[in-house]
Amino acid sequence: MVSHAMLPFAARLEGAVYRVYFSGRDAQNRSRPGYFDADLGDPGRCLRVAEQPLLDPGPPGTFDDAGVVLSWIVADEDTRYAYYVGWNLSVAVPFRNALGLAVSRDGGRTFGKYSAGPILDRSVYDPCFVASACVLREAVGWRMWYVSCVRWELTPTQTRHLYHIKYAESQDGIHWQPTGQTCIDFKSEDEYAISRPCVLKEDGIYRMWYSYRGAAYRIGYAESGDGLHWERKDEEAGIDVSESGWDSEMIEYPFVFDHDGERYMLYNGNGYGATGIGLAVLAEA
Fold first, then answer.
1. What sections of the chain are H helices per DSSP?
2. Distance of CA 89 to the CA centre of its chain
3. Which of 10, 23, 126, 210 could form an SS bridge with 18, CB 3.0 to 4.6 Å?
4. How many domains is the chain partitioned into structurally?
């Protein structure tokens, strides 16, 4: 872990102590996930940091040979299903992503990859790549909201990806069927990246936080009655960049969770996680 602390995800251990999973980068810019433990009563003090990465990049030629970024974890008693982004370097464009699955049988202390190949990859609905996912397990089955890259724009000065958020379904959390349903789409020609969905369901309403980018990332918010058709309400996200400091240029990759009657948000700041992870608390008006 030479740099970065990307895509935070919090899982409660006991009391107010949470394990925050994240992904760092090595000297060759390859990502690996790890974790640290913190108490919400004193979140600036780190209680423990993982001594080894939870997952390593795969062998040459596999979908995750250039890096692994943890995206979401679903708990089922002592079993944890970790959905992660596998990175490949490419030729015509800089990279290609796919989604993998890792499983823990010891409550999230160690993980093993479910397979050498991805569980969700390019398809007729996702022509370029798929990436960071949020997964909820409901009575009707498993539901996933994920990043879908629809095209690359190649110009003499840049190679720019265009991706938004689509939806997939599963009966077991392993075998997934993409639907082609776009949940969060670009709202203007200036937007070209919508990423890292985080979905909560409360009182029959699905609430999603995500990142959206034109000039720089900001955190957005949307609501849905069915999890399929969403209304963007970015002005209600409740957070913006600071006037100065580590999160003054961009904010992105939100993870929202509740504890003891309070709503918290973990997020990244400048440099896509290069400056670390922040914690925000919802302040009711």
1. none
2. 20
3. 10
4. 1
